[in-house]
Amino acid sequence: MMSKGEIVLGCLAPHPPHLVYAENPPQNEAYSEGGWETLRWGYARLARKLKKIDYDVIVIFTPHWQTYIGTHFLGLPEFKSKSVDPIFPNLFRFNYDLKVDVDLAEKMREAADETGIITKMMTNPDFRVDYGTITSCHLLNPDWDKPIVTISSNRNTDYYSPEVMIEQASALGRACAKAIEESGKRVVLVSSHSLSHRHFVTESPLPEDMSLEHIYNHSQYVWDMKIIDLMRQGKSREVIDIMPEYTEQTIAETEGGGLIWMMAAMGHPDYSAEIYGYQSVIGTGNLIASWDPNDETREYVL
Amino acid sequence: MAEEMNEPEILFGIYCPPHPHPLLCPEANEGYGKLRSAYDACRKRIEESEADLILIYSTTWPSIVGHQIQALENPVWTHVDDDFHYLGSMPYDFKMDVDFANGYASAAEKRGLHSRTVAYDGFPIDTGSVVALQLLNPDNRIPACIVSSNMYANRAETIVLGKAARDVLAEQGKKAIVVVVASLSNRMFTEHIDEVDDRIHSQKDDDWNRKILEFFAAGRLEDLSQLSRDIHGQIRVSKVVAYKPAWWMAATMGQHNNYAGEVLAYEALHGSGGAVITLTPTDGSFGDKEFDEDDVEFYHGDRDVLDKGML
Question: Is-contact B92 B77, C-beta < 8 A?
């Protein structure tokens, strides 16, 4: 009899392309002199933890695959192409070659469909995988030796309200958790997004000039710290409860539903999040954090 | 006449929807077919014109770092829409006017805007631009330029961006066709539908769309520009801060109401309002206009009102 699948880790993994740019991986065409080390070193630390965890697949929820007609899942086993960031093409032109766990994607889609969520498998081979997926997955697993499943962000906040987003993304999270359990697989969940999300609309001549990097305004910072403090205290339910106000006040990228989805899938953890780093990127607030359900391996990182 | 006044020569404007249905499945719904026919009529008019340039403002190309302008001379890719991937792929092979793109970026900077060109192999040209260029200019007979829609930009910035387009059109002496790619009401159905059953999402959206079309048909583009904030509040899903295409189109085409307007088609596209409209400058039509807000020539950026205080 197949053992139950489980979520072995949940990661909040922001995706500013600046971080990949700063790493200078061979897949990226742009060249940098570095930058944003607080986040990059935090990512490196979390990537090392992941190397010690036994898991089969990364399931990532991305706000840069924006769908207005339901939730979509990548549905072909391989995608190989070049991702060029439409906002920062000067920084991110990444040649990717990735594998998808289509079986798990199908199971999650079916489970979501059974709960009444509108769903669609994406099976067009010309489809270009979004840069949020690529950035977060690359920084968590630079070897790209695990298959992924990408879930699109259904834009409920835009179409309805943050409260509807909470209901929908939570239902999706519970459905995905059920599918994971039935799959027998060990899964790492990734919620790919920033916290506060107001950008500067200009860019310095050298984007990695850290003397010019700072949070857009102090209000964004205070709100981000409030959220992080709740995460440290293991109050994930409260994080979701104040999400509508937080999202409105900080134009937070939580509006895409990723963190809500992940917290629901993980049963709203009441244990402390592992904090790996917080830093601004072109004015936005970015946190790397993880939730480790295993009491024995959970760490106090920062 | 236009040259004497150092005014740009804009042959006509086109307002058209970004959805891929008229390109990928015009046969799936009678309305999609009508939109396709309207695109075809525009294509024919473009072919018969003496245009040097097709200038596109696309609401499905959002930017953050200023205003981005496509400057790769020959972008080639196969595009797939995020939502409508199941309708098929959209291969493209376009010809861009690099001189104009560079000139536009410079003109925008001179008016206080942050702007930059993008010229990268594989850059993701957006669905709206791909649909418009494939249907309006399939043989690349006329070079094009595409400008993004900055997600934070509001009225002043967008109007100045339009005026910058006029500056460079006049400077380079190019005759242009101005294309805005945007829906009217943009609320789509949030479930998958049988295309045969497509309709405007709500009666309210349809009512507003038809009122907007009355203005377009009467050539009252500047009046529509003045109504942009109301349109945004009534029939636009708040994905961005404002409904900007009428601001840009009016500013680019001269801020008046003297056009011969023609609504070639108005149909539903997965619930949203899609219309193909032409506006041709004329001496007649509605001359009167009312400016409710400042006419902006130069963008000064944030006004730092919080730093200045009350005293």
Answer: yes
> Considering its fold, how many domains does chain A have in total?
1
A280 occurs within a structural domain: yes
Q: Are A72 and A94 in contact (CB under 8 A)?
A: no
pTM of the prediction?
A: 0.95
DSSP three-state, residue A136 = helix
Which of B83, B123, B150 has the CB atom closest to A84's CB atom?
A: B123
- Best mutation target among B19, B25, B61, B65 (most A Cβ atoms within 10 Å) is B65
A contacts of B150 (beta carbons < 8 Å): 201
In this structure, are residues B105 and B116 in contact, taking their beta carbons and an 8 Å threshold? yes
**Reduced to 3 DSSP states, what percent helix, strand and coil does chain A have, rounded to the nearest 5?**
40, 25, 40
Best mutation target among B190, B235, B269 (most A Cβ atoms within 10 Å) is B190
Nearest to A155 by CA among A63, A242, A60: A63
Helix axes B228-235, B203-217, angle to 10 degrees: 160
CATH number at residue A139: 3.40.830.10
If one counts every other C-beta atom within 10 angstroms of the C-beta of residue B288, the result is 9
Please identify which residue in the block is written with the tokens 């000064």: B300
Residues in chain A whose Cβ is within 8 Å of chain B: 65-70, 72, 82, 84, 86-90, 93, 118, 120, 122-124, 126-128, 152, 154-155, 158-159, 199-203, 282
Rounded Cα distance between A154 and A168, Å, is 9
What pLDDT, in 10s, does the model give residues A72-126? 999 999 999 999 999 999 999 999 999 999 999 999 999 999 999 999 999 999 9
The pLDDT-based confidence of B2 (bands split at 50, 70, 90) is very low
Extended strands (E) in A168-283:
186-191, 274-281
A107 falls within a domain: yes
pLDDT at A114: 98
Nearest to B114 among A69, A86, A202 (CB): A202
* Residue B302: other Cβ atoms inside 10 A: 8
Give the structural domain span for A216.
6-291
Q: What are the structural domains, with CATH classification, of chain B?
A: 9-308 (3.40.830.10)
Query: How distant is the alpha carbon of residue A11 from its chain centre?
Result: 7
Look at residue A35 and tell me if it is in a domain.
yes
* Cβ contact A89–B118 (<8 Å): yes
A interface test, pick of B70, B120, B201 with most A CB neighbours within 10 Å = B120
Distances (CA, A) of A30 to A85, A128, A131, A141, B103: 12, 19, 14, 20, 25
Q: Name which of A196, A212, A203, A191 is nearest A285 in CA terms.
A: A196
- Which B residues 45-84 touch A at CB under 8 Å? 61-66, 78-80, 82-83
When pLDDT is cut at 50, 70 and 90, the band that residue B28 belongs to is very high
Residue A299 domain-assigned (yes or no):
no
> Are B192 and A155 an interchain contact pair (Cβ–Cβ within 8 Å)?
no
The two tokens of residue B123 are 């850059």
Distance from the Cα of residue A125 to its chain's centroid: 23
Provide mean pLDDT across the span A223-247.
97
